[in-house]
Amino acid sequence: MIATGFHSTETFELPLTLTDGLSAEEADRRVAVALRAGDIGARELSFYLAGLAESGGYQQLGFSSIELYAETRYHIRPPTTRSYVATGRAMRELPAIDLAFREGSLFWTQVRELVRVATPETEDEWIEWAAGRSARQIAAHVARRRKGERPADPSRRRISDVWFRPDGRMNAAQWAKWTAARQKLEAELDRPVSDAEMFEHAADLLLGSSPAGGVRRGRPPRERRPGGPAGTEGHSDTGPDATRGAGPRRVQVPQLPGSPRAQRPP
Hints:
The protein is mainly alpha-helical. It contains ten helices and two strands, in the order ββαααααααααα. Strands 1-2 form a two-stranded antiparallel sheet. Strand 1 and strand 2 form a beta hairpin. The longest helix is centred in the N-terminal third of the chain and has 32 residues. Helix 3 crosses helix 4 and helix 6 runs parallel beside helix 8.
């Protein structure tokens, strides 16, 4: 027996026994039932994961982030968890889209794309426009519009956009710090934040000290010679003439085993 979440009371039987040799009509009916069950499950996941993320309930369960909770408990990859959370949050503000889903007018794949751009003021127009269109068509249309824009608004061409994929791994401590920073930024912006936005905000912080956008130059750190007294960092010359601006300096070059003896300059 499958029951929906949010405000719906829809229930139906989902048989666990798989049967070969069904007629095309019966197989098609079971495909529809299975797809609807999956859609309802995705809606439930979005709703409750968003709730746990906003309330911090994952911490009460012993986890430092909603992504770690979902991955450890239910093997949901972090990007998928963030997608569920973002959709669940948006659905709370879009009752018309949620109603269209509950009535069976929209599939979950369509809902997931519509909530990226729809607002309470525009959701009715998006629902009407999405009727009869596939999730692929909706995604292509949404990709060229910003949150709050309407389906009939002019398209924003993004053909010239070039994308790069940073490559790197984080250990547990680095990931915890990254997650905490994301949660802080999401709380400040009151919306989900992608990894790309996180990188952008981090870069802005590093470059923000220069109005022109460049990196503010500073004196490179000096290295202290092993065994040298304080204040001799970065100096390799010795003797009474080793003063700043005293002319050419002689540098002691270490002799490598098996190499010809280095000649000192005259």
